[in-house]
Every structure is written in C-alpha cells, then in structure tokens.
Amino acid sequence: MTDSILIPVQSVGVLALTQEEFEAALAAGARLTSARRPQGEVVSAESLLDADQAAAQLGVSARWLEDSARAGIVPHYKLGRFIRFKVSEVATHCKIGGAPMPVAEFIGHEPPVERSGRYRIAR
Predict the structure, then answer these.
(1) Interstrand relation of 77-79 and 82-84 (parallel, antiparallel or unpaired)
(2) How far apart are CA 74 and CA 84, in angstroms?
(3) Alpha-carbon distance 78 to 27, whole Å?
(4) Who has the most CB within 10 Å: 69, 96, 105, 122?
(5) What does the alpha-carbon distance between residue 60 and residue 54 come to, in Å, rounded to a whole number?
(6) Can you tell me the distance from the alpha carbon of 3 to that of 13, in angstroms, rounded to the nearest whole number?
(7) How far apart are CA 119 and CA 68, in angstroms?
(8) Are the beta carbons of 47 and 87 closer than 8 angstroms?
(9) For position 120, what pLDDT does the model report?
(10) How far, CA to CA in Å, does 15 sit from each of 8, 26, 32, 68?
(11) pLDDT value at 67 more than 90
(12) H or E element in which residue 9 lies
C-alpha cells in the first residue's frame, strides 16, 4: 500500500490523497490564487497592532482609535473580542477619506469641554 496524505475535512470525514495527487492539488491552488491577484500587486506583510501601539505611531489616543473602530469610522480587524489595526490603512483613511467631521464643529457649537473625565459639548 502506498503512503497517503490524510486531510481532515469538517462534516465529511478524512480525504486520503497520494503524494502525486496532493502535489497536483497544491499546484492547482497556487495557480488559482495567483490568477486572482492582479499582476504587480504586493502582498502586505504589515503586522496588526493593538490600539496602544497603533495610537503611538499615529499620534492619537488609544481610546479615540478604539471608539472610532467600534463606530466603523476607521479600518480595523476584529479578532474575537480584540480590535487590531494596520497603521498604513488608518493613516491613509484619515488623510484621503477622512474621518467624519465632529458634530460640534459641523453645527457651529463650541468645541467639547472635558468635565469629570467625560467630554460634553459646551453651550
């Protein structure tokens, strides 16, 4: 009997392939993956950072970054209960797309005033 490569398949069982079948499947998968990616596109190896690390590089507070991510304002990655950022994506978004203008400036009110640890709009 020849050696088989066993691949567990969820809800189905186990897929048994010979070495030749396995290598052919890998090559076909590589062709499909490279066909989907446009020529010249570089895959980013930028690491995902937590809010503290990304905020330090961007010059903003970690709380602002997390709140903006939860509100869907800045690009982020949700990994379970954790939020991660790519600094280049957040920086590009803020420079080109821009974050929405704060409501206080939009309607002509004075800027927020910090009171007892929370921001409230001064009237």
Answers:
(1) antiparallel
(2) 11
(3) 32
(4) 69
(5) 9
(6) 18
(7) 15
(8) no
(9) 55
(10) 6, 14, 21, 44
(11) yes
(12) strand 4-9
Give the residue among 78, 76, 100 at the shortest CA–CA distance from 88.
Answer: 76
Whole-angstrom distance, CA of residue 27 vs CA of residue 37: 16
Give residue-wise pLDDT tens across range 48-65: 999 999 988 888 899 999
- Asked if 50 and 37 count as a contact pair (C-beta separation under 8 A), the reply is no
Residue 63 amino acid letter: R
pLDDT of residue 106: 47
CB 65 within 8 A of CB 51: yes
- The predicted-structure confidence for 1-42, as pLDDT tens digits, reads as follows 568 888 888 888 888 888 898 899 888 888 877 666 666 666
User: What whole-number distance in Å separates Cα of residue 24 and Cα of residue 81?
Assistant: 39
Q: What residues does 115 pair with on adjacent strands?
A: 118
